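Table S2 (text version). Query chain:
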Amino acid sequence: MKQIQEHPIRTLMKSRIAILDGAMGTTIRTYGMKEADIRGERFKNSSKDLLNNGDLFSLTQPEMIGDIHRRFLEAGADIIETNTFGATSITQSEFFVEDPRERGGRKDPEFYQKVIEDKFLNDLAWEINEQSARQCRAWADRIGNATGRQRFVAGAIGPLTVSLSNSPDADDPGFRVVTFDQVLQAYKHEVRALIAGGVDTLLVETIFDSLNAKAALVAIREVFDEDGKELPIMISAAVGRGGETLISAQTTEAFWNAVKHVKPLSVGLNCSLGPDLMYPFLENLSEKADVAISCYPNAGLPNPLSPTGFDLGPEDMARYLSSFARGGLINIAGGCCGNTPEHIAAIADALKDAEPRSLDRIEAAA
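Corresponding structure-token output:
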């Protein structure tokens, strides 16, 4: 019988806590980019503001994006994420398609069917995903070769700007702006482009709507089956004060039960309200899940007076993540919104000698 080789990320997580990078959007803002910088020559005539479309910087300011990857890697990240949180045709349509609500209409499945079939949006989404993955790959390999320590690329798959679970119309609770199949098709396109760009794993992250996440996971499975190539899957949810996913309101245990059939490499929590309120929900997930646990919280709550826009500094995040490690809760640690390379450096240093949550014990129990 042919022995299945263990993935190198899993091997790493058995020896120590793996470090994930921080917030791309937060770090981009420290470079002082303006509207003209994100437009460049290529998008100079776009009719809508683009500055909040951070994924587009992978095409118009690739040197900056590469520099951010370098800084996170040099800070100690083992895994860096592609700059593709909103790189689907659905999310990109927010920046390139006229909103029908401005003329008294509404967004609905007919509107999003045109988005799914739009050549410009599909080509743009593919290019952002593939190029971002190649930029990550180049820097991960470069730093990995220079340090003798393998680094990995996670293809970031965000939650979208639409919900499959909820209606935006209080007078029509059955209404949905988009269909499951439309979301599925957008995600399949993204997944294929990330794989073409050379990612090591696919990360379905910041899940606030479990049905959107289900569409992403079905999309991944269909691409694997149709294209004959599989990669490890990482899954991470965002939760509210009660530990529930923000739109579909699943508890962490219910969320795990909804996704465990995928047999992910890891499952975890990210974003949310910051690390100070996350411990009991992370503890519950760690008790229930029989896979690696990841945690990369926001740096506290938003604070416009803070240099990063969030309350917690590097030493604060290091302290909180250290407490998660001492509790035996985590295999992967990093930061979401508000976490710069300096935050990740502090986390990496604080956890360098910390014991990871035991995966051998979980395997034995299974």
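Notes on Table S2: DSSP finds 15 helices and eight strands in the chain. The chain has a mean pLDDT of 94.
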